[in-house]
Amino acid sequence: MHHHTDPAMKACIEECLRCYSVCLSTAMNHCLEMGGEHVEKKHFTLMMACAEICRTSAHFMLVDSPHHKHTCAECAEICTQCAEDCERLGNMEECVAACRSCAQSCRSMAH
Amino acid sequence: MHHHTDPAMKACIEECLRCYSVCLSTAMNHCLEMGGEHVEKKHFTLMMACAEICRTSAHFMLVDSPHHKHTCAECAEICTQCAEDCERLGNMEECVAACRSCAQSCRSMAH
Amino acid sequence: MHHHTDPAMKACIEECLRCYSVCLSTAMNHCLEMGGEHVEKKHFTLMMACAEICRTSAHFMLVDSPHHKHTCAECAEICTQCAEDCERLGNMEECVAACRSCAQSCRSMAH
Amino acid sequence: MHHHTDPAMKACIEECLRCYSVCLSTAMNHCLEMGGEHVEKKHFTLMMACAEICRTSAHFMLVDSPHHKHTCAECAEICTQCAEDCERLGNMEECVAACRSCAQSCRSMAH
What we know:
The structure is a homotetramer.
Chain A: H1 7-34, H2 41-62, H3 68-89, H4 93-109
Pfam families (chains A, B, C, D): Csp
Protein name (chains A, B, C, D): Ferredoxin
């Protein structure tokens, strides 16, 4: 990333891209293979919404828009919900961890 | 779009995709060709941020996430700022109109 | 879209954004609700890949990159496969029509 | 990423997301600040097209679509052109390195 980017933002961009990768990959591999409640509309939509807001928040930080504070706030909220729903289903530890870590980073970036 | 989608949301998705198209195309064609204040960081970043939030809000409505209310609220805010900045520069009527129309549609979708 | 954009490209951008909207919305609403073979990995992945390449091809035309010829060629190929798979499952006429129409438009744009 | 993902694909996803980040951030910070030939349409469009195809190729690998071979082939081509154009302008070493590294990884993934 560009050399002017501050370290906290740089770390948050990486958290967002990692959480995007884990959520999308888990939904399209693990959840589709498991079936059942893993492909119920509420859970699967939350996984896809989480992947998308992470991708978008990273984008806003990369283009250096001051509105990244708002996308990061929304990202923290969706990631937290996604972590809780993955915990409820069980056996999705990698996704839970990526969401919690991204939520924390985005929350501090939002202030 | 899917036949269950309500007409107001359907219209808002179309407004968002239209505003995304106009902002991105105008930035990458009109603004790069004009140069000067059209490629100053503040204006150009606002154009790109506007295109991205419009693309994302359409995505949230298409996947039918309840969080579309928050992305639409943010979209309305960025579109309004983008319309004002395009008005300030002048000769960007198509972009001003697309942003104002999208802002109005997103604002009502956010409630 | 920007006034310099030629009419054929303008139409292709609209076809791509419409096919993106229909595929994503149908996958996340119709397919998740139907379950069964609609959420089998092969079909669902094809729907999501189709939505993504349509979104990307529109983007390449909007930024006016000469590489849009290659993304449009790939888009035509994926749309054709997606139309065939939706036809096989049945009761997905809107998606079949959007994919066929987008494939045709992208194929002519690719030359 | 999902535990079934093979190591070479995992590495390629990371290369793509890194090149996406570097190209987008460099365009929107370094290039807009430098002005002159950095914001000429041909160079700037290539930077944005490179960011977009990297983002898309990562997405295709994450959703585990067999069409990732085609998006990776296109990604390798655009990254190579982008590296050459950044080299021509000079003082864009980070971008040159990210593009070359991503091109190599995508080329081997395309076979």
